[in-house]
Structures are given as structure tokens and as C-alpha cells.
Specification:
Layout lengths: L6 E9 L12 E2 L2 E2 L2 E10 L9 E10 L4 E2 L5 E6 L6 E4 L4 E11 L7 E11 L5 E5 L3 E3 L7
Antiparallel strand pairs: 1-4, 2-3, 4-9, 5-6, 5-7, 5-10, 8-9, 10-11, 10-12
């Protein structure tokens, strides 16, 4: 658990849009490939940070594992604050705050199945809070599926 003035990313998964269960094929549905999937992040913040309204940046960086390069089309940057409006809520008897949020991502134009991985970072502007987490590799299937 984090110190009172700290925050830690604790979970990073990919899921289908209608699920919160981790999937290595997040855009595959029963009727074929879907146009969108979700990246879900969980974090915990200490008692003095969780409701402080202090700003931070959350960067969800997608990496194409085959090219060993960032995928701009799948990466996202969010400017948020430690506040209820960005899903930080009190949790447990220790006075900590927890964030659980899923972000919807559109599948880019792909010509073949491609393996990606997300790396999430959460950093405040003063450099006092800096945390990262790696997600599991996942495969995206082209949408619409090629003939």
C-alpha cells in the first residue's frame, strides 16, 4: 500500500467493451472482431493524496510488440486530478483512495493480427509521484476482418 503522499498503479488489463475480465484477445467477440476494446486501470493513493485535487498525467502507451515501437493510434494521454470526478473513491479502513476506470480504444486499421502491450505511467507535475505498470501482451484482430 502507498504512503500517505504517494500513489501506485496496481492493475492494467485489456478487455472487450462489455466486460471487466482480462483478455488477450480484447476485440474478439462471438460474432467476430469488434471495432473497439477497453484498457482498464486500477490504482491506489495514500490518505493525503486521494482526494487532494492534485493534477497528474496518466499515459497509456501502447507498444507494437512485433515492431518494438510505440503505437500512436492506440496510445492515450489523460490530464486528471486526484478527485472523485476522475474515479478516485475512499476505500477501506486505512483511509486510502482507489481508482478503477476503463478507457475505450478504437482498433486502428490493421492488415493482419498484431500483438501489442500497454505500459501505463502516472506522474504528477512536481515529480513527487511517479509510478508505472506493464500490461500483458494481447492480440488485435483486424476490423473489419479481411476476406
Amino acid at each position: 500500500m502507498p504512503a500517505p503522499y504517494d500513489a501506485v498503479l496496481t492493475r492494467l488489463i485489456t478487455t472487450s467493451v462489455d466486460s471487466e475480465v482480462a483478455s488477450t484477445q480484447p476485440n474478439m467477440c462471438a460474432n467476430g472482431p469488434a471495432e473497439k476494446f477497453q484498457v482498464c486501470v486500477e490504482a491506489v493513493a495514500g490518505t493525503h493524496i486521494g482526494n487532494s485535487c492534485m493534477p497528474y498525467k496518466l499515459h497509456l502507451c501502447a507498444v507494437d510488440e512485433c515492431k518494438a515501437a510505440p503505437s500512436e493510434g492506440l496510445s492515450k494521454m489523460f490530464e486528471e486530478t486526484f478527485a472523485k470526478k476522475h474515479k478516485w473513491v475512499p476505500f477501506g479502513c486505512r483511509g486510502e483512495y482507489v481508482k478503477k476506470q476503463c478507457y475505450t480504444v478504437t482498433v486502428p486499421r490493421l492488415t493482419e493480427c498484431t500483438v501489442f502491450r500497454y505500459i501505463a505511467t502516472l506522474c504528477d507535475k512536481q515529480g513527487k509521484i511517479a509510478t508505472f505498470i506493464y500490461g500483458a501482451p494481447f492480440i488485435l484482430v483486424p476490423y473489419p476482418a479481411p476476406c
